[in-house]
Design a protein that fits this description.
This protein is mainly alpha-helical and about 240 residues long. Helix content is about 55%, strand content about 5%. It is globular and about 60 Å long.
Length: about 240
Amino acid sequence: MTTKLPFALYLPDPEEPAGVLIWGKAPEQKEADLAAGIGRVGGHRSPNYAQAYLLAANTLIEEARGKKTLDHHVLPIFFLQRHAAELLMKEPLQLAMVVQRYREKANVSRPNFPDKAQAKRAEDSHNLQALLADLKAMAQAMQVGTVPAAMSEAVGEILSVEQHPTWARYSYHLSRTAGSAVQKRHMEQEIAIPVGEIQNLLQAANNGLGSVWSFVNGLIMGGLGQQLEGAMRDAGELD
């Protein structure tokens, strides 16, 4: 007996960036979309958000360096990098929470992770320092290796230049005291933003976290992937 899928599957072209989309699309659709300036994602071609933002930052850096416009592009590059750093840490945190939910369903003993605050931060926090601390706590509790040093270094570099959480998004923020709001300008002084170094660190952190499918490499994502498979079997979700 064969199963017919309701959609056609296409392998990605060899020149496509790895890690963002698992499947490609029909050659004629690809050419038509390129001509029309259309990008398609979703469904069975749902993107990996962390990889997409990391790729976008890298692409923009290379383009800006080539055209000598790095100063003009440095703010959106930094914003993409900051968001990539957040997502790179949230991905293993959220995967660990899925593992724990399957363990709970199977009434299997589970490590003491996450607490309520950690679970909430993994879903909606933008605090890189707190997410990094949670990632280290998770890795230790779940016994899935260690957080790559490059991740800690990337967070340190980002926070060393980020003067306010909205610093890379808006030209000012409102400081509220005693019922009044005062407009505080960002960028009152010139600042050097090491986006090249940050990108190198993020790429190294990404490699150091590994892939959920790489069970034998001793990295965090592979370790969680292996635990997920076991937890799903215990919960009766896999044969």
